[in-house]
Amino acid sequence: MNKSITMYISSFSTKIVAKVVVLIVTIFGNFVLSSCNKDDGMGMLDANKTSESVMKPIAFKVNLKSYRNNTESRGVPYNRLDESFGVFASYHEDYERDTIRMNYMYDTESGEVMDAWQTYTTFSMPPPMKGMRFFAYYPYQDEDAEIKYIRINDGNKNHQGAPFFDFSIPDSVLAQPDLMVADCEMTSDRLIAGDTIKFTFHHLLTAVRFTVDSSVPKGRIRNVTIGNVVSGGTYYYGDTPVFMAYDTLKTYSMDTDIRISATSVGTFSEDQAFLMMPQSLGSNAYISITFDNGRIYTFKKTMADVLWEPGKIVTYNIKITSLKDLTLTATIKDWEVGDTFNWTSSF
User: Which class for 318: exposed (0-12), middle (13-18), buried (19 or more C-beta within 10 A)?
Assistant: First the structure.
């Protein structure tokens, strides 16, 4: 089943708030309908659940794509997920599919246990002959996390229908997570029969990276700043998912020490990537580069009307042709190219 995501981007131009662009992005591809589990002990059990059911973890199959072979991008290592993911689930009659609360799982932490993917808590089987929907996000936002960047259902655990979450880009570039989502749909009978939930995770953000051109004079790049860009948004799961940007703008800055000599040009590490909200950049958006050759120079480039799409890697090549001129040349690639990595969880 192919799904599309509709993204509405809002940005500021002085005091005018305008909806700038609508992106139709195919994010979800061929989710295999599989199975799910029961309530996670958060007071959401229903009387018609089978109390005699054996309590056990619920298993997952997890698929992802590396953006390039034999390497890793922050948050999505080449051969494994390095953090937990959260799962929501409901069982329902057909008529209440889009309105029922998440009565089976609510933000249940799940991850790798002994080379298997499963919930960290146990569940019994749902009632038979029900429809089931499952929603996942990565990385899991623990309630005790030092940096709070995800808020689920605006704090309402009784929210009806598919979940949503608000997402704020952390100030520290190195703390910006690789936000991914997945979902699947099936019948409770398939879960009861032993089927496994299958999640294919897809990137929501835009990775903004930098390279240094060989023409850059000898010196050091001391800082990269991306200014006046959208600071986050709200993601709504559903048959036609929506990712809506905030109106608030922020500036993100990263100190660096990229050295350029007569014989070599330094490189940015994999971690030195800005993971940004997809957006159409406003008139005040910019990228600035601080260059040090014994004297400090700051080059600023306006980025008005540039489009950052979800699931893309945008790499800007830094070229300083003189100490008065900076050129940024963008190369755009799909994040989800290369091999697909499949993990099967079993008990």
Answer: buried
